[in-house]
Amino acid sequence: MVDTDIPSGAAAGTPGGPVGRRSAPVKASKRAWATAASGRTAALLVSPTLLVLTVVVLYPTVMAFKESLYGTKGLDPKTGFISDTEPFVGLQNYADIFGEAGDRFWNAFWNTTFFTVVTVGLETLIGVSMALIMHKAFSGRALIRASILIPWAVPTAISGLLWRWIFNSDGIANALIGRQVLWTTEGFHAKVAVIIAEVWKTSPFIGLLVLAGLQVIPKEVYEAARLDGAGPLAQFWRITLPLVKPALLVAVLFRCLDALRMFDLPYLLIGAQKNSVETLSMLAQNEASNVRFGPAAAYAVLLFLYVFLIALGFVRLLGTDLVGDVGGPKAKRKNKLRRTAVSGGAEASA
Amino acid sequence: MTATVKWRTWLLYLGVASVVAYCLAPFYWMLVSSLRSTSDIFDTSLLPTSVSFENYRAVFSPSQGFGRALLNSLIVSGTTTVLALLLATFTAYAMARLNFRFKRLILTLIIATSMFPVVSIVVPLLKLFTDIGWINTYQAMIVPSMSFVLPLAVWNLTTFFKQMPDELEEAAMIDGCTRGQAFRKVIIPIAAPGIFTTAIIAFIAAWNEFLIALSMTNRPSIQTAPVAISKFTGATQFDVPFGSQMAAGVLVTVPLVIMVLIFQRRIVAGLTAGAAK
Amino acid sequence: MNARTTRVLQCSAVLVAAGLVLTACGSSGGDSSSGQSKSPSFTGRGPITFAAAKDSSGVVQKVMDSWNAQHPKEKVTFVQLPADVNQQRQQMIQNAETKSDAYTVLWMDVVWTSEFAAHQWIDQLPADQFPLDKMLKPVVETGKYRGNLYAVPQSSDGGVLYYRTDLLKKAGISAAPTTWAEMKADCAKVKQLPEAKDLDCYAGQFQKYEGLTVNFAEAVNSAGGVITAASGKPDVDTPAAKKGLDFLVDSFKDGTIPKEAITYQEEEGRQAFQSGKLIFLRNWPYVYSLAEKSKVAGKFAVAPLPGLTGAGSSSLGGHNVALSSFAKNKATALDFMKFFTSEASAATFLKDASMAPPYGSLYDDAALVKQYPYLPVLKKSILGAVPRPRVVQYGDASSAIQQEAYAALNGDKSSAQALKDLQSELQKSAAQ
């Protein structure tokens, strides 16, 4: 192994022991935390989470990936029975998206992307405004907090049904706008209906998280800014926004991941197999429900990769705020070195 | 000066009112629909012509087992939230405070696991749980729910912990606290709003989970509220019991919100009080 | 520190690997077990389960209770599935995929038989042990796959035409229309009445879902066309089928069918009819008792569906019961299925929950006809009914039909083009 400049001495000291610490300057103590002891602690703290996730997600995910390499079971014309085994087709299910079946995939891909960009964009705007209003409002805070929770607390299945009746041809939406729009038919209006319902349901998610981020900003920061003569707008751009950025980005990240997997709402509100609103999850579900588990799994894996790329982007964006690489570029380079060293080691041991 | 202040308060009230209206208008429609009688369920009048509780009676008729389902939901999402928060607190602390290798990789891995469409993991999970005899148990719903609650909790808590200045802890440690004590007595109370919000969001996410809860159970005594609602039927195959579905929607939402409000007072107050010591 | 962290990671890697091994074992073990048993033996007695959508009338539980009273050691428990048909099917398929014995007897939509039989998710049943000859013939056919019985009819259903007797009478029309042309002519007459000026003529189920398949199939069959020929091969690109589809397409164009009907499922259509907005409605018998409690009560009646040149033919609805291949206690299960599909049970289902019986004689029972005046019409409808295509890939066939029919109704495609595309889609799916 290449790395580690364990500061001698620090390794010997008991972590958190009052004796060695007291004299240590802050900087040194920070580096000292990256020691054998802290590695052990970290492993101890992190492993339960990893364990749970391995059992519940990694295992089925690996299974799904394996499934995606198999084709659909064939029908034996003589007996009339479907064969017991699925043929191994390699990457055929993936290659198919560039062929004939591809139109539907790409349509779903663009729908998914469109929904994600538009809904998360709107949710961020509305959610942040909600949070700012809630943070400022002192009277009626309980009321506003309770009401903001409601859309998020209504089960998606129920809210899908609710919106379907709202957007019914004789429903309240048409009664309010005074003309008959057939929301659940194919077309752009179907997308609009889904976006309205989705944004209503999930803006509170961003609102709540950003509010929590605002609440942990110490008041002194604002006071200092006010003393410096910063106006409300300047305060927002220069203090509020940078300080809630991590919370906001995490909220946006999770909304993106969720929006990319959107399924229930368009399914219940507009219906299955509508080109205007079919998302990748709907497509995967549709294939699975027609007992084509291979292609279904392939779509799921592709969606997973897509989501993964976006998550990676966010991790980069959030990196310094969240992971807090200490020591700047130098440490980063070292990290990279470590990573290659370890992946090499893992291969060797496999 | 006073004029601007007045104007600003006024604007704030307008903001509050519009947020409340935005959130509540569709819910109001749900409430109104649930109070209509079956014969005028499709009306679009803004008030029910005659208030009828028949939908609520239908939801609570003994054959629906809805009360039991609410209790099951509470057990499942409550346990999920507590467990997830506990594990996530440890993990997030390590992420925010300790310096160790693969941090970025682990964070990415944790989030990556929450990204797989549930539709695709249900069948393998069902196979696994059938093999180990977990069908019709609470843990068969709690453990998979952790898969989407945990990543959310880890990431959220990491950002909140990260926002706390290191100096706070260091000061506490100088005062003779161990690192664990410093964390418990200093960081957690200050991060309370963040932790609490994470708990609410985790709880609701678990509360609304449907597909796994449906697949892992086949006994009414163990089913959760969303599963129970999905089984509402009308008198015949085609007759959609819209009224009782809306009533059930109100019934799963309102207690949740009330509970959150109560907890908010108690927990946040308790935590902040702890911080003052 | 390196060693520690790597160990944690290795640990999870081992877990993943273990998972893989587990599944590898699982799948290889499963393959050998399902043999080519042509005539499965029904052995084993003991408790069983019945998996079906929850039944709010309580009649299913009532029938099961009377079985349980007689068979205390072979009790049946009710596994309640979601109300949504697709979710019921999904749960059953999941159950079969995991080879679970949680469901013994399955309550299946009539269109699932071929698919479940071909996948060997359900067992072939001894036809001679069920009173099939007393049942209506088209209904029995829905339980067969390649000539063998896989599912036994529990209830049936057929489409009927609801019409406003009061308006027709006022307009001087004495009988319900039997052809589409007559229906359109009747509408024209009725609409001359001052109170009926704004009414719409006709609606069915035209939203893009299974109901559209039903309505499309009815239109095609009522014009003398077919979707799949007797041999099972698709044969929908014909002039007769085009006349059927054209009836729907033209009706949308000339306003006979209101344009919002493209969003209608069963309930939306019922709502429109009940609130007096429609003169004619194609729907299932369930509407009858509900409409009797609405503002059109006493002002409507039912008739067989109209067709191109004479009476039309309905699609078949209803449910069968089948035996899961992976179940235990199959001897008990078979006895229970006989009990559950007996004429006595069918009478109870009809009386308590208005489920249309598979037995012909019940339709002529005077007391029952008094309770359900639509029974004679329904019998005619079921006897003249054509099952929806009975193909293994029913899901694909139905989505292809919905896709093309919807495009034609929406005006995105000509009906000729839609049928041509549908034919090639169906051929493709049959070839799979």
Descriptive tags:
heterotrimer, A: 350 residues, mainly alpha, MetI-like fold, 71% helix, globular, disordered N terminus, B: 277 residues, 0% strand, flat
The CATH class of one domain in chain A:
Mainly Alpha
- SSE order of chain A, as H and E? HHHHHHHHHHHHHHH
Would you tell me the overall average pLDDT of chain A?
A: 78
**By helix and strand content of chain A, what is the structural category?**
mainly alpha
Beta-strand fraction estimate of chain B: under 5%
What characteristic shape of chain B results from the CA principal axes? flat
What is the C-level CATH assignment of one domain in chain B? Mainly Alpha
Most extensive contact: A-B, 116 and 108 residues
Characterization of this structure:
In chain A, 71% of the residues lie in helices and 0% in strands. Chain A has 350 residues and is mainly α. Chain A has a domain of 188 residues: Orthogonal Bundle (MetI-like fold), CATH 1.10.3720. In chain A, α11 runs antiparallel to α14. The two termini of chain A are 17 Å apart. With 277 residues, chain B is mostly helical. Chain B has a domain of 167 residues: MetI-like (MetI-like fold, Orthogonal Bundle), CATH 1.10.3720.10. Chain C contains 17 helices and eleven strands. The radius of gyration of chain C is 25 Å and the shape is globular. The interface between A and B is large, with 116 and 108 residues.
SSE blueprint and pairings:
The complex is a heterotrimer of chains A (about 350), B (about 280) and C (about 425).
Chain A: H1 18-23, H2 26-33, H3 36-67, H4 92-95, H5 102-136, H6 141-153, H7 156-166, H8 172-177, H9 188-215, H10 219-227, H11 232-260, H12 264-269, H13 280-289, H14 293-322, H15 328-349
Helix pairs in contact in A: 3-14, 5-9, 5-11, 6-9, 9-11, 11-14, 13-14
Chain B: H1 2-34, H2 54-59, H3 66-97, H4 103-113, H5 118-131, H6 139-163, H7 166-174, H8 179-190, H9 192-207, H10 211-216, H11 225-230, H12 242-276
Helix pairs in contact in B: 1-12, 3-6, 3-9, 4-6, 6-9, 7-8, 8-12, 9-12
Chain C: H1 2-33, E1 48-53, H2 59-70, E2 76-81, H3 85-97, E3 105-109, H4 113-118, H5 137-141, E4 144-145, E5 148-149, E6 151-158, E7 160-164, H6 165-170, H7 180-190, E8 200-203, H8 210-222, H9 239-253, H10 266-274, E9 278-283, H11 287-291, E10 300-303, E11 316-323, H12 330-340, H13 343-353, H14 366-371, H15 375-383, H16 394-410, H17 415-431
Parallel strand pairs in C: 1-2, 1-3, 8-9
Antiparallel strand pairs in C: 3-11, 4-5, 6-11, 7-9, 7-10
Helix pairs in contact in C: 8-9, 8-16, 9-16, 16-17
